[in-house]
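Issue 218. Parser rejects a valid record. Input:
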Amino acid sequence: MKSSERNFARRMDLTSLQLFVAVCELGSIGRAAEREFIAASAISKRLSELETSVGTQLLYRHARGVDLTPAGESLLHHARSVLFSLDKMQGELSEYAHGVRGHVRIHASISAIVQFLPEDLGSFTRAHDQVKIDLEEHLSAEVVRAVREGAADLGLCNGATGLGELQSLPYRRDRLVLIVPHGHALAEREAIAFADSLDFDQVGLHSTSSIYLAMRQAAEEAGRTIKLRIHVTSLDAMCRMIDNGLGVGVMPQRAFELMNGVGALQSVPLSDPWAERELRMVARDFSSLPVTARLLVEHLQAPMAALAAA
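Output the parser choked on:
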């Protein structure tokens, strides 16, 4: 951090930022003073000092209250972000005071969450009951971005493309299959190339999901287009749509097996090479992860290590 940046950070006063946000939200120094139980003159003094610190006017003052200058609008955005981060930090640190000894933030693809993570995280937390895990579902590209930007300690996504400087380790493998209703024209096939399903309407996942992108590329290579009937955001929604005659769809075999009973459906293995997939763990630097996150990485690697040793 440059010395000028350090000096700016030191000049920022959190109480003044809180009062500035209160004034902006209420549109009046007087109303903010009432809500915050502080004299209006004290707020005015702090706002003047804040404007001196940033070197520009933040508020237009008038008889009815205040309005934000363009600089004030920018500061309001950043002040809310800073205060939100402080509240989150306080919440996480208070958990340590109540016995939580670690906190791991994970972003994962729907394939990882549906197929493997419930069992893997369940067994981990039973062995390490004082570690808190925050898990969010995102598309694979968003998982990678979250890890790169520091919003997640660990990512679980499909494949290893677009990682750049990030590190990755193998997590699990899965296989994509075509889901069709019982009695469908393709239902009796032992295996099928995805291109052979393009005569039928398709129910697809989100347009930027790794599965749909692979489907689209396969269709382009075959010189065909996908007859997309509908996009859905979950695998159970896909099954329900297929069961109601809206098309056929592609999803991981294990995910389909875990949702057994969602409609009168069956799976047909895809023969395309891209149907065999590898799910990977992603981090900025595995060696520099906190101890609890490294423990989790070792735990998640165990099934693949056992398969390799068998």
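Fixed in the parser; the record now loads. Residues 174-276 form a domain with the D-Maltodextrin-Binding Protein; domain 2 fold (CATH 3.40.190.10).
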